[in-house]
Amino acid sequence: MTERIQPPSLPTEKDYEGNEFSPIYTTTVTVDGGVASHGRASGRARSSDGALDLDLRMPAELGGDGQGTNPEQLFAAGFAACFHGALSLLARQKALDPAAISVMATVAFGRDPEDGGYLLHVDLVVRWPGVARETATELMEKADALCPYARMAWRGTPTTITLAS
Prior knowledge:
The chain has about 160 residues and is α+β, with helices and mostly antiparallel strands. About 30% of the residues lie in helices and about 20% in strands. The strands form two sheets. Strands 1-2-3 form a three-stranded antiparallel β-sheet, with no helix packed on it. The chain has a two-stranded antiparallel ribbon with strand order 4-5. Helix 2 (about 70-95) crosses helix 3.
């Protein structure tokens, strides 16, 4: 039998008073273009620590072969995992067992009617059997304010783009 992994004990209350972003963890993933010289169509994504190493492919719905992971799937996985983590942390603080929580993220890639560019739309569905709807709803609202992916979705994310020399 495997030993149970201890979940992180990150705080949920506002406990930082600084004037600048204060990173707690940083990761780097590099994507290169593969045989089509197009990262989305035939690329490879690798993390600097080697934990992530996967083929990227366009989904069949966008004209690709669908034989690999695509950015929307990666984003959906990250969003669902982040929201699940925030909700689980809040559940434990209320002495609730988070084991039954599941979060399903659906990410749609489409056109922005405002400018014709591309846009993502995210739907999260939480299943939490055995917990009162009012309790689950209250904690989901708190998780929405705590989860960095959710905050990114409604606040935006500061981004810098630099050409390496």
